[in-house]
Structures are given as C-alpha cells and as structure tokens.
Amino acid sequence: MTSSMKRYAAELIGTFMLVAIGPGAVMVAAATHAFGQTGIALAFGVVVALCVASFGHLSGAHINPAVTIGFWSIRRFPTRDVLPYIVAQCAGAIAASAILVWILGPVGNFGATVPAVSTARAFVVEGGYTAILGLVIMAVATDARTPAAVAPFAIGATVFAGALVTGPLTGGSFNPARTLGPAAIGGVWASHWLYWAAPVLGMVVAMRAYDVLRGASAPSVPSGTIMGTEGSL
How does DSSP classify residue 229? Predict the structure, then answer.
C-alpha cells in the first residue's frame, strides 16, 4: 500500500470512528435513555481527541471535509489530495451510519443533524462554531510555539464545547461528513446543503484569519506542506 493510500485509509477509519461514536451516542441515548445532551457532547469530544491522537501522525486526522478544504485554501494542503481525503471521509461516515442502523434500527432520527432554529440562524451557528474550531486547529497545528501533544485535548475540548452548546440548535455538526453519513443512510436531507456550506465557510475564514493574526512573529510551515491536526506530516 502506498503512503497516499495509507493516509486515505486513516481518514476513512478515523471518520468511521467519529460517526460510530458521535451519532452513535445520539442513537443509543434515544434507544436507552442512558444519558442526555451532555453525554452526547462528551462522546463527540472524546472520539475526536482519540482520532487526533491516533491518526494525527498518519494522515493529519482531518476527519472532516471542512478541515481539508480549509488547509487547502491557505496553501497548506496539496490539491491532489483534497478529493481523495473527502471521499475517504464520506465513505467512512456512511459505513459507520449503516452499521449503526443495522445494530440499533432507525432510532434517534438516525443521528442526523436537522436545524431546530431558522435556516439563517442555523447557518450562523454552524459557521460560527466551525470557525472557533478552525482557529483552535490552526493554533495547535501550524504554530510552532504550541506543543504537539496539546492538539488532541484542545481540539477534542473544542468539539465537546461546541456540541454541548449547539447540539439542541443544529445538531452540532461542524463537519459535512458527519452529517452526510446519517443523511445518506436514513434519507434525512433537510437543509443538508447548510451543513456543507456553513462549516466550509467558517473553517476557511477562521484559518485565513489566524494567519493574519499570527503575522510574521511565529515560524510557519512552508507552502504546500501536507498539514493536519498535529502539524506537518
């Protein structure tokens, strides 16, 4: 297996884990009432931290098309890898959702993300909180002043906080692949475009903003270097 294929496989497995445990928690909570929104948000945060720690040194642990597109937009990820990464992420998400439905049945609306507020408000919520995630990723992945070991905890904590606050409003996605998996398996396509457009826009704006804020005061990774949530690969 080539190095590129290994990275694509790591993205597929990582996104599979994310959806199996994140939306999986939504479905388990609906089926068993064992825990509530806080438990669901914690599941998302923990699994993201685990994925970054496990796959950050292999593929960068993007596990999110918005992250991949964000890094590409600031010339820190090669164009040739953008589509394969996104395909791998989406495939992992769909596979995890299919297995969840096979195990649990069509409970919890398949773990799908559907706005509970107006479309405009949902767009701001998803875009805004994805921007916060993007700023954190840039801080821990592209700034040499931040120890690499901080990345899993910082990113996982950001996802936990975001899911806790926005879960009741939009489902707290921040990730097009996470939304695509349940939508494709459960046929829940309500406002699906929003969960692509808002996170991608928020991530791109945030990553560009961090580059401006950092300026020339900190060393940066050369343009075109393959980047991930634990820095260059």
Answer: B
pLDDT single digits (tens) 29-88: 999 999 999 999 999 999 999 999 999 999 999 999 999 999 999 999 999 999 999 999
Q: Which residues contact 17 (CB under 8 A, 6 or more apart)?
A: 47, 50, 51, 63, 92, 96
| pTM of the model as a whole | 0.92
- Domain membership of residue 229 (yes or no) is no
- Whether residue 224 is contained in a domain is answered as no
Interatomic CA distance for residues 35 and 54, integer angstroms: 26
Q: How many angstroms separate the CA atoms of 21 and 87, rounded? A: 20
Look up the CATH number of the domain holding residue 47.
1.20.1080.10
Give me the number of domains the chain comprises: 1
